[in-house]
Amino acid sequence: MLNCGMLERDSRALRKRSIVLCKQLVVDELLIQCLEANNILTPGMAEGILAKNTSHERTWQLLKLLPKRGPEAFSSFCLALRETEQQHLCDLLTQPPDRDDRETQGERLIDSSFQHPIQEAVPAKRQRIEDLTECSLDADGAIDTPVQPCTHEFYLDHYQQSYRMSSSPRGFALVISNVNFGASTGLDTRKGGEVDEEVLRKVFTELDYQTIVRRNLTAQDMAKCIEDLARRPEHENMDSLVVCLLSHGTDGAVFGTDAEPLQLDWVFKAFDNSGCPLLQNKAKMFFIQACRGETRDSGVEQVDGPTRTSSPNSEQQDAGREGEETGDPRQSGDSPRIKLPQRSDMICGFASLKGHCAMRNTKKGSWYIQELNRALRLHSKDVHLADILVKVNNRIKLREGYCPGTPYHRCKEMSEFTTSLCQSIFLFPKHQVPQD
To answer: Which residue, among 126, 58, 373, 334, has the nearest Cα to 246 in the 3D structure?
Structure first.
């Protein structure tokens, strides 16, 4: 059984930083699950916290409970902060006492009973930019854990069932990031977009891709950049391709800085089996951080079903058999020729569902890119890319943020992906695979 109270020094640290915690702490299902798993919170307490309508109310409910949950509550709370990638708050709570003495006037002690502060005690949240094509939300930042290496044993067990990934570099990784848009376009600056591009540059460089970053391109310049990349002769000696497009967008297109649309179907065509023959039978990966509409998902209360969704199935269509209409080519006297479908070996991850907005933090980058970065760093060593994107979906599903104009100012997100893959994509990071 838990002892009644928390150690005084730990309780004091929570009191000192309660206002900062109220402004920055993300109390979501992951954090609560960590505390519940360590027996700091009972199921009833966890349910009561998550039932609160706003993030602010959830935080205050948690802060009122923690000091009463025994001497281990503080260390478990710090562990939960690390597990949910809020290390900066853990560092703030555990910093040495001499630094505590230098706290600013705005972070003074509040009442030990953790009563809800009056309006003047909590500075108003900063003004958020509410544009029509992407919502700007508060959330955690990206992790910088090094990409975990693949073992030689794993490579030997899986390379025959996956796309070839033995070249070094593995391929080109193009990142086009549009942050600043012309004043006449009516599109707001994508604050936080520069964080996303740096996150992607780092992770794909660590995955042994030759990374190319281009910022603030018009639709015409984006098209030229993509055409130039598709013509690169180096594809012949590379095993894959990555294209990341970060911009404002709508269903089926992303916008250049001139607000002109670049159709995604045209992008895929530039790298398909006809547009880029040197990438035939090679893995081609696309990641789109852009809105696909203006609908905002405020979430619904779960009333039934499992707590986690199962992996979505990838639809596969029969491409048909050559000769069904014209007869067997071997009977015509011609040499048999192998044909490929126009578009295959592609996977595309979208930040949001069709018709929906995508979520972006104005300081720490978008939800989707944060979670994609995390999953690639932690799981590419032994998980194929389709399942990595399922992990991204599941992590995003549990996020929640502030978004004006939605019920209780709550906003959710769900990403998705499409594939025409014929094999699994294993990236085999940091493994020196043998050359044929």
So the answer is: 373
355: left (phi over 0), alpha (psi -120 to 50) or beta: left
Distance from C-alpha of 315 to C-alpha of 337, rounded to nearest angstrom: 27
Work out the angle between the directed axes of helices 73-83 and 29-37 (0-180°, nearest 10).
140
Q: Averaged over 219-241, what is the pLDDT?
A: 97
Strands 346-350 and 283-289: parallel
Distance between CA atoms of residues 208 and 111, nearest Å: 53
- 211 φ, ψ (degrees, to nearest 5): -90, 135
CB 161 within 8 A of CB 429: no
Query: Residue 167 is which amino acid?
Result: S
Cut 0.90: pTM above it: no
Task: Give the contacts of 417 (CB within 8 A, at least 6 positions apart).
Answer: 347, 348, 349, 350, 386, 389
Report the catalytic residues: 248, 291
Tally of CB atoms within 10 A around 306: 7
Peptide bond between residue 169 and the one before it cis (omega within 30 degrees of 0): yes
Q: Which helix (H) or strand (E) covers residue 227, if one does? A: helix 219-230
Nearest residue to 399 via CA among 45, 61, 55, 43: 55
- When pLDDT is cut at 50, 70 and 90, the band that residue 270 belongs to is very high
Measured at the CA of 252, the angle between CA 358 and CA 424, to 5 degrees, comes to 80
Find residue 249's DSSP bridge partners: 254
Tens of pLDDT, residue by residue over 317-352, are: 222 223 333 344 334 445 455 666 777 899 999 988
Distance of CA 174 to the CA centre of its chain: 17
- The residues pairing with 240 across neighbouring beta strands, listed in sequence order, are 171, 283
Please list the residues that pair with 253 across neighbouring strands: 250, 263
Sign of CA dihedral 430, 431, 435, 436: negative
State how far the Cα of 284 lies from the Cα of 294, in Å rounded to an integer: 28
246: its two tokens: 């970060």
**57-76 b/e (C-beta count within 10 Å ≥ 16 → b):** bbbbbbbebbbebbebbbeb
